[in-house]
Amino acid sequence: MTNAEAASGRPVVLVVMDGVGVGTGDEYDAVHTARTPTLDGLREEGVYREIFGSGTHVGLSSDSDMGNSEVGHNTMGAGRIIPQGAKRVDDAVTNGEIWEGAWRDVVAQASQDGAQLHLIGLLSDGNVHSSWEHLVLLLEHAKADGVSRLRVHGLFDGRDVEDRTAHRYVADLEAKLAELTEGTDLDWRIASGGGRMVTTMDRYEANWGVVEQGWKAHVQGTARPFGSADEAITTMREETPGISDQLLGAFTVVDGDGEAVGPVRDGDAVVIFNFRGDRAIELTRAFVEGDGFTGFDRGDWPDVLFAGMTLYDGDTNMPPVRLVQPPLIEDTVSEVIARAGLRQLAASETQKYGHMTYFWNGNRSDPFDPATETYIDIPSDQVEFDQRPWMKSAETVDYVIEALQEGGYTFLRSNLAGGDMVGHTGNFESTVIAVEAVDLAIGRLARQVKAAGGCLVVTADHGNSEDMVERDKSGAPRTDDDGRPLWKTAHSTNLVPLHVVDYSGQDWRAVEGVEAPGLSNLAATLLTLLGLQVPDDYRPSLVEPAG
Ligand SMILES: O=C(O)[C@@H](CO)OP(=O)(O)O
Ligand SMILES: [Mn+2]
Ligand SMILES: [Mn+2]
């Protein structure tokens, strides 16, 4: 029997466990600490490998860059390593392309009499949504290009960098602004800000109220007033000891008369300097969409020249003006499957919905073939996720199980968000529960895949929950002044698991000798399991028929 015959007809079911990497197994490894009978069992039952999900293996600039959902899902779906995020913008910066196109219009607009240039984005060197170097370069070029009034609206991270460091980023930014403006009559200031999870950086329309807070802070200048960004941070930390940077409230910087120092006005130029789209698109829409906009009540919105760092949504062409053009990823795995006429299902809760559709499909939102593809978006809870660590793992799997029972689908993919979203809270106990809920859900799904004689593939897009503590350079856990662990809220650079368990009777074995096996090998692996031709430029499959 050929591979294709063995595979013909039976469903292949992929589960992406978001943020569940392979850790050291120590007491800060929530995956190891969790009771995971399903994952332990799958490991015995089928092919198990540990593969790369970070750094240059997913198209980032260096191997010290942790993975993230965007690049992880892009890479999985593309079957190749595509230059990504910071790397893509870095390339445009290196070859100077970034200063040639829309940037010229931006500075021309900002040089009109009385106009201002607003730079809005995440103050971080996590290189997930934004890059500190890019912000500095924008400032330097704005100076060289004669922008006299400039306002920075800075969001605090605490998610991709060590938590409770926002004051350092603010100090560094104030120092940079002082250095660039010293001895000139440039009028450059920090004008507003807030923690990214409560200000501006909502995603997948989970909570437009977050964007509204940002709109009040950055655009209207009506958020909670403070004399400076540093004063805002200090005050909010006094009010809520231990508060995470991501949750610091939205604020507006005001002058001695209580007037906002930099609201956005007609005729200004606005740049969002985040390069990643999922959490930049909503504010973008608030700026560029006309009367049809329904996210929240914008009041009288200013007429500005708006530019994003890059394209945030390929299908809606948002934003229409951007500093750097994005990668166009063609021939992604679901396009290949759609061309073969096979039916596909994608299911995820809202927090990761775009990951399983837009990012998976090489930055396009719509199905390739609406007749054969079904997308399911399960609304996420609107809470801090450590309060509901099971998230929607059960509901997500319910949809996949139902589709398997119904029959007719050949490739069914889903994302279980808990390991990542709860891992980001830095709450170890809740993260253990999140991983257990993921395991439980996969257990239920595995039984249904078995009943259907299908093939189950389980992997993760990057690490997070398997390493929950900040570490020093030697890898030793760091503690606070009282000796308590410094909980880590960020992703990791760890390897991720890959399980392949086929209940159809076809045996598979690991392909030896694949160079640096990683997420980029998943697409060929899936096509091989499906018995479909692998495009020539894909990285190779990690499994082959045994015997
Ligand atoms: O929450 C997010 O935006 C990122 C971390 O910045 O996580 P993920 O890449 O898993 O979506
Ligand atoms: Mn993720
Ligand atoms: Mn994450």
TrEMBL record:
Residues 465-485 have a biased composition (Basic and acidic residues). One of its GO terms (cellular component) is cytoplasm. Residues 11-533 form the Metalloenzyme domain. Mn(2+) 1 binds at D420, H424, H491. Keywords: Glycolysis, Isomerase, Manganese, Metal-binding. Catalyzes the interconversion of 2-phosphoglycerate and 3-phosphoglycerate. This is 2,3-bisphosphoglycerate-independent phosphoglycerate mutase. It comes from Ornithinicoccus hortensis.
